[in-house]
Amino acid sequence: MLVRIWHISLYLFLVFTFALAIFCYGFFPLSFSPSTKSNITDLPGSLDNVQLNTKSYKPRNSRAVLMVIDALRTDFVSQKNNMPFLNQLIKDGRACQYQLQVHPPTVTMPRIKAMTSGAIPSFLDVILNLGSPRVKLDTFLYQMLQLQRRMVFYGDNTWTNMFPNYFSRKGENVDSLYVNDFYEGDQNITNQMRIEFNNYDWKMMILHFLGLDHIGHVEGPFSDKVPGKLKEMDSVIEEIYEAMKIWDEKYHSKSLLVITGDHGMRDAGGHGGSTHPETRVPLVVLGNNCSNSADNFLQIDVAPTFAVLMGVPIPYSSIGSLINPILNHIPPLDRLHAIYYNTKRLIEKSKVFYGNELSEQDFFIQYKEAKLLHSMYLNDQDDMNLLQQAMGKYNTASRNLSSLLIKHYIRYDIPSIVIGIILGLVTTGLATMLCMIPYEIEQIEFQPKPERLMFLLIAGVGGNCYFSALDGIETDILRYSFISNLLFTLISQCIAIHWSLLESIVTLLSIRKMANIFKLPGCLLVFGCIVHMLSLASSSFIEEEHQTWYYFNNSWFLLITLIEFRKMNRTIRQIGDSKSNEVLLSHCKWERVQFCVSTGLFFFGHILLRRWNQTGDKWQHVPDVGDWFGKEDNKFWLSLILFFGLCYLLFSIARFTGCLTIILSLTACMLIYYYRVMIGSVSFWSVVLPKHDFCIYFFWITLMEIYLIALLPRVYRAVKRQTEPKDSQLLINFLCVILLISAFIHKPHNVILVGAIVSSSGFLVQRINNIAKSKAENMLLKTVAHFWLGKMFYFYQGNSNNLATVDLNAGYVGLSSFNFALVGLFLTLNTFNGQILSFLMLVYHLARGIAQNPIIKSAAIEKREPIVKQYLVKVLGLLIMVPLTFYLLVVALMRNHIFVWTVFSPKIIYDCFYTVMFFIQFIVISCIFY
């Protein structure tokens, strides 16, 4: 049977996405910990035949308040002017401050899970952060619930999503992800907290304040709003402290206040990465006779420490150590029992990894020495030297155990990783061969063989049965189950289809014809793609990937400029030698002058845009142009650059659309500026505009009108069943809508990037049209060049391979509350704006070029459209698949690298998301344009 090339390309891309999912399943297990729960009977009742008093393990505080200030950095507390009351308590010795190290990803949901369970969350929890699924791990909250210790909560609804039905009373901030709320949500929490001061039926109150985090996302840690927010939190701490005095008198027992942050905040604003400001948070304790310590503790240490303070079993999933300075108020014998209990638990967990070699490990020897000293102290409780030595040995052993368990806690599903990589390699190889088929071929003969399909099906299911019976393989993909058999069935059928496709494609390969396309410009593009792919083996090149794209794009721009300049000089020389037409000669010289001026402005613009938003890791802290515009003193210049950016965008739109669309686009640009003035981002001659949502409604109505201008005529022709040739007007209007939405959600100083990418695309297309010698070469250069252009503008916007650079504020532009669909759509469009716009511009230029100069000149326009589809999914798909396949192989080999979770893993998430997004883009464009 005959099958279209673009159908085959689409199939291969889907299989590659399937292989990517299998790899991610093995590389990012959703849970590292079992759902087993601890029990009060787990408390050790003896020490080497010496009986211990388990009844001494009891609550040490009458009630406790856990105050989580989202994105609280350590230096926020250390600056005395920010929190004067809290700093005075620390100075007077009434409070103790410690430093916690946070493991990446530094986002809220996994950090809450780490604090409450003592386990290291999965890296993929960064994606689940929006959904906040119910926690199945054992936590100290679950243990308190089992012992009927009443808890109340007020704050981020992430807690109530993770722990449903845990709290006797709760007040959720239902718009926790609405980052424009700096004060209202926190004030609601404070009001509810004051009401709870008069209730005496709870044992623990959790407060999670979000205002500081929201300020960080929108304005960064150096915003002038940060000191005021910290003073607000300081006054809340003072209120709780005064209430604690009343509680202590009522219960004749100490109450406890613990203040900490779930994660920090990077210097550029936001969080999610692994920089020092993001991974260091304070832990301040009020109410106990604690002692200060300069040691660094882990955030997972909070869970076992809280469990001991509240007198509940330590969570089964915890691999943290106790923060001993906090436990100073506990009697020495009981404190020794608690640290022995936790260390014994960690020893039991380590047996899984060390087996018979456990007794030879240093931490086990320290544990045995600590037990000996512990038993000696039980016989002579006046010898404080024995107590200190035993505590020290237990502490050293437990800390070493925690470090080792953290390393072993990450369990990869190796078979899934291997299967994903092999399937990805085979699919990528087949896609590469498909690109070597001559461009004029639209269909190939494909003959699937049923006997081959059946053989591979039996082999796949049989192999699954065999491997599932083997012992010692830690994997879920090889378990004998319905899902596993279905998975192997799909894989075996994909291999069978690949096999048949290979036989069909080999006969059509034309390497010589393909090689003829790659002259000097094409060779640079291929060389750049190969070098970029190889650079992904280095963590430094991943952190600074923007440098790779900046270098090769600028080299490519310079090369095609020099080629065209040489071509112009040759033409002028030939005309001058013939002396046949002086008018033509002066015209050519004038064109050369215009070309030089426009090219000079083009390069100057890109030099400026390169410094527009600092990105990467090495120079992230260096102030950039965007930081300068963000200062309050420079609001006039920010207003001017927004006005210029909108005018530039309008000029870019006017180059390829009609008069009515231009008028509507002008209206939309005016509404964008009005909205920015209304919210105070920019100014308009010091005029204060009323805050009404009508400008937002009018904006969306205007965009709808722009799209309907092109859609309604097509619907009319479809109803009338007219067979008029299709045009690209619907695509053009859709492109206009996306451009205007991009300008709407961008930061004001970044609006200029929207027009810049349109102009850059036009510059590239004009140069390629002048230097490409064949239509096939023309299309190939345009496709690869636009792929590079999208990557470059991705980094121009300030993005990187660090999760912290995602601008959450863009998801809430024009919204007054959290809407998952709209926020997700806006965040995607803003984050990957460069790739999305470059893709749309490529579609527009390919369609326009084929309509004017088709490869198959005798074909009607309806017959030429599949060529655009074929090019998009075949060439762009290959540009995505080849480096990503290589990168997956690198990551699999470097899975034990020190930067695997801080550098390599975030890029996998970005690339996987972009792969799925490309497929969605292609489907949307196919539905709109064809």
UniProtKB/TrEMBL annotation:
It comes from the Eukaryota. Pathway: Glycolipid biosynthesis; glycosylphosphatidylinositol-anchor biosynthesis. It is found in: Endoplasmic reticulum membrane. Residues 500-920 form the GPI ethanolamine phosphate transferase 2 C-terminal domain. The chain crosses the membrane at residues 12-32, 417-441, 453-470, 482-502, 523-542, 548-565, 593-609, 636-654, 659-676, 696-716, 728-745, 817-847, 871-893, 908-929. It is a multi-pass membrane protein. Keywords: Endoplasmic reticulum, Glycoprotein, GPI-anchor biosynthesis, Membrane, Transferase, Transmembrane, Transmembrane helix. InterPro entries: Alkaline_phosphatase_core_sf, Phosphodiest/P_Trfase, PIG-G_N, PIGG/GPI7, PIGG/GPI7_C. Belongs to the PIGG/PIGN/PIGO family. PIGG subfamily. This is GPI ethanolamine phosphate transferase 2 C-terminal domain-containing protein. The lineage of its organism: Eukaryota, Metazoa, Ecdysozoa, Arthropoda, Hexapoda.
